[in-house]
Design brief:
The complex is a heterodimer of chains A (701) and B (112). Chain A is built from 13 helices and 38 strands. Chain A is α+β, with helices and mostly antiparallel strands and 701 residues long. Chain A is elongated. In chain B, helix 1 packs across helix 2. Chain B has a single domain, classed as Roll (Ubiquitin-like (UB roll)), CATH 3.10.20. Chain B has 112 residues and is an alpha+beta fold. Classes of the chains: A alpha+beta (701), B alpha+beta (112).
């Protein structure tokens, strides 16, 4: 069979053998993926008859559930019947339990998943018939997969009677199945959902204790025990709640068992919550999924409020104000000890979701989200962003979380280190690497900057779905107009100080880019030395450092309503990354870079050697626009008159790496209904989290 | 009958082990990689915090088998004998960043 083709599946190797046939790993040559192919034994086909077999397998192939191994296809070549399935790699549950059983919380977690799979199948009229430890694989991620739905071995009545009356050791084919058989099945009745629940009871019994509930040396002894004996006493380590659920599944009379798999699942889930809180309640009563920050006065956020998301090297802070922006409530630190390089607010499609990337030098980088303005955060078990194995790369940090353009309300992007772009098309549930950029031939020649090789800025073009820009340090600016499949370097005219060639095609250390939705073809760029504007989508750049004290800097933000107005915070030099002359000055142009003027009122002008990092400056979308600026020394400044005057609203925070702002309001319901290229189309890239101003006014009537 | 292997879980990972500071298993294990795989399967939140997506132990996490730091005994291929005590020890790396500014490898003191 190895090397043969069944339809478009090339058989690669044998990976298992069971009562129904032999299982092979095969290559799906159309979809270019590995699958499992079960080639059915002729005996199995005879027992049920090929028609019923195919019908059942086809019915089962309609099941779609995270805990059920998916059947892709059922086929026949000559006399050979085969079933093509999802390839699941994992360990059979019965081998995980060992001789002493698994901890209660693990049993309940796995049990709830199996019960959920059964509930899903039973609701669709599909019974498993052969649930057993060997049919339950636990993947590396800790997810149980139920195998062989609709493919269960059936035994001819005579065959079963032979075994149950046998005084010899149980024949190998039935050895793995008999101990899971429900009494009514042993009596010759057809199995139904209730017999699956019995088998669930045996599986849970075994997982919790490492032992089988009904044992014997021969088929007769085992079947007698199942039919007549109570299950062996569970060890005292199994708590009464779990024991109760197991024993209810193991009621001899099917009517005494749970009536539906969903009831068993609910019982296990309730127990799961209870186990988590009773073990060491002082440690983490919130459980693994939800992180609750205690001792924090959380924010009460109302419609129309302005929310500031401040990421620091040691945690995140949230601030809220009314649209007057006079007084700010402060909450935090969230994730203390973790550095938070990126945050965003996603108010699209009825959501009020905060996102934060938290990075710990010890435990790695995780994306977290909150739907209640920070009271609880989803603390994922698994990292959501993972480089595929063949890249050999590992995620170091997430620098930018960016909602997609107005036509893509479920799309989110992440820019990460090592430099790569990830995309989610279901509002952050699943993520994948954007291969078009990762496989770009330039990649091997990009060089890490001081902060590592990072993709730190993502700017979708709000007027053109599929068109976007990313900034990579040090790779330069790249653009796509086909949704990320192909990318072009856009760095002509941007000078590199640290390479022998001063104007290379790529390799620039770009620090920040910005565009205004009204003029999406025009880009502004703060480089590692150099301040630039492009009037044609980055195809050529011109120097606009006209009268600034230094053209070195990180932050750059475009005014939300005036496309000619841009703000920057120059720092003295590469070696001395502080505001020049000890004066903290934010520079503004109102003529697209022809001239710049300093903004100083309210900002420290003596011995103020501040650094404002690339995400440290942001504008809201109100009118007059508010500006917010966080420093590495932990001060947060705000202006509610477009930068004319500033107030320090917080000081003494850990080093601020990211400031984002959001206007909370009734979310857009019709993302497509948008005047072409009007100011309301979308907030500028830097304050992408904020809602468009005209929309908000409209929504208030 | 082999003696069970015991994992000692540090505080920050206990939210993912239902609060347990110790996890025991009598599943036969041969290498540390197998042992950490099993722990990650039993308690899914643990894996991605100990290992990168490429399966390497995170740089600032030390895992001891008995009294030996596995970095010096074969890494994840370190044998796990019957009855072994496996201790997960986050390095103390003072004032560090998570991703970019000061790579805090300077002193890797051990916190027991």
């Amino acid at each position: 069979m190895i090397g043969q083709k069944l339809d478009h599946y090339r058989v690669v190797e044998k990976i298992g053998e069971g009562g129904m046939g032999v299982v092979y790993r095969a290559r799906d040559e159309v979809l270019d993926r590995d699958v499992a192919v079960k080639v059915l034994a002729p005996g199995a086909v005879q027992t049920l008859g090929p028609e019923q077999l195919l019908r059942e397998a086809q019915t089962a192939s309609a099941l779609s559930h995270p805990n059920i191994c998916t059947i892709h296809q059922v086929g026949q070549t000559g006399d050979t019947f085969y079933v093509v399935m999802e390839l699941v790699e994992g360990q059979p549950l019965n081998t995980l339990a060992g001789a002493a059983g698994l901890p209660t919380e693990v049993v309940t977690r796995y049990g709830a998943q199996i019960a959920d799979a059964l509930a899903h199948a039973h609701d669709r009229g599909i019974v498993h018939h052969d649930l057993k430890g060997a049919n339950l694989l636990v993947t590396r991620e800790g997810r149980v997969k139920v195998l062989d739905f609709g493919l269960a071995t059936r035994h001819a009545p005579g065959q079963l009677a032979e075994v149950t009356q046998s005084f010899a050791s149980v024949d190998t084919k039935l050895a793995g199945t008999l101990p899971y058989m429900a009494p009514e099945v042993l009596k010759g009745e057809p199995g139904g959902p209730a017999s699956d629940l019995w088998a669930l009871g045996v599986v849970l019994y075994q997982a919790a204790s490492g032992q089988m509930p009904f044992t014997g040396r021969t088929g007769f002894e085992i079947s007698s025990a199942i039919l007549r004996e109570p299950p062996a006493t569970l060890p005292p380590a199994v708590p009464p709640g779990l024991a109760g659920i197991i024993l209810r599944c193991l009621a001899k009379d099917p009517a005494q068992r749970f009536q539906r798999a969903g009831e068993a699942r609910a019982g296990l889930e309730a127990l799961q919550a209870a186990t988590i809180t009773t073990h060491e309640p002082r440690e983490e009563p919130s459980g693994p999924r939800l992180l609750v920050h205690r001792g924090i006065q959380h924010l009460a956020v109302k419609d129309g409020d302005v929310l500031l998301l401040v990421g620091t090297m040691k945690g995140a802070f949230l601030l809220r104000s009314t649209r007057e922006r006079k007084r700010w409530d402060v909450a935090g630190p969230y994730f203390h000890g973790h550095s938070v390089f990126a945050m965003t607010y996603d108010g699209r499609n009825g959501r009020h979701r905060l996102w934060a990337s938290t990075s710990s030098v010890l435990w790695g980088t995780f994306l977290r989200s909150s739907d209640d303005f920070g009271k609880t955060w989803l603390n994922p078990r698994e990292a959501s962003l993972k480089f595929p194995a063949e890249t050999g790369a590992s995620l170091k940090n997430i620098w930018h979380i960016c909602p997609g353009g107005p036509e893509e309300p479920e799309v989110l992007y992440c820019g990460v280190e090592p430099a790569a772009l990830f995309v989610s098309r279901n509002a952050g549930e699943n993520w994948s690497l954007v291969r078009g950029l990762y496989d770009h031939p330039h990649r091997s020649r990009w060089m890490p900057g001081n902060g590592g090789l990072t993709l730190h800025t993502i700017v979708p073009d709000p007027g053109h779905t599929g068109k976007m820009y990313v900034a990579i340090s040090a790779g330069g600016l790249y653009a796509t107009s086909d949704g990320g499949q192909s990318w072009q370097a856009r760095n002509r005219g941007v000078r590199v100080t640290f390479l022998p060639e001063k104007y290379p095609e790529f390799g620039q250390c770009v620090h920040k880019i910005g565009l205004h939705p009204q003029r999406p073809d025009r880009l502004f760029l703060q480089n590692h030395w150099g301040l630039y504007r492009s009037d044609h989508c980055g195809e050529a750049w011109q120097d606009i450092a006209n009268g600034v004290p230094s053209d070195f800097g990180f932050a750059l933000v475009v005014h939300p309503h005036d496309p000619d107005c841009v703000f920057i915070v120059p720092v003295e030099s590469d070696e001395f990354r502080c505001t020049p002359d000890g004066r903290m000055r934010i520079f503004r142009t109102r003529n697209a870079g022809a001239s710049w003027e300093p903004l100083t009122r309210g900002l420290p002008q003596k011995r103020a050697y501040e650094t404002v990092l690339r995400d440290g400056l942001v504008a809201d979308s109100l009118d007059p626009a508010g500006l917010y600026c966080g420093t590495r020394s932990g001060s947060l400044y705000a202006s509610r008159d477009e930068g004319r005057s500033w107030t320090r609203i917080l000081e003494g925070l850990p080093a601020i790496v990211s400031v984002r702002v959001a206007s909370i309001g009734t979310p857009r319901t019709t993302p497509g209904a948008r005047p072409a290229r009007a100011a309301s189309a979308s907030p500028p890239a830097r304050s992408r989290a904020a809602r468009p101003p005209q929309k908000r006014r409209k929504s208030r009537g | 009958m082999p003696e069970p292997v015991t994992f000692h879980i540090p505080g920050p990972l206990r939210p993912f082990t239902a609060g347990r500071s110790e996890v025991r298993t009598d599943v036969p294990l041969t290498t540390l990689r197998q042992a950490l795989d099993l722990l990650g399967t039993l308690y899914p939140g643990v894996r991605d915090r100990l290992l990168t997506e490429q399966g390497a132990l995170r740089e600032h996490i030390n895992v001891f088998v008995g009294n030996e730091d596995s970095r010096y005994t074969g890494g994840l291929a370190t044998p796990v004998p019957s009855g072994a005590q496996i201790t997960i020890v986050p390095a103390i790396s003072g004032g560090s960043s998570g991703g970019g500014f000061d790579s805090a490898r300077a002193s890797r003191h051990r916190m027991i």
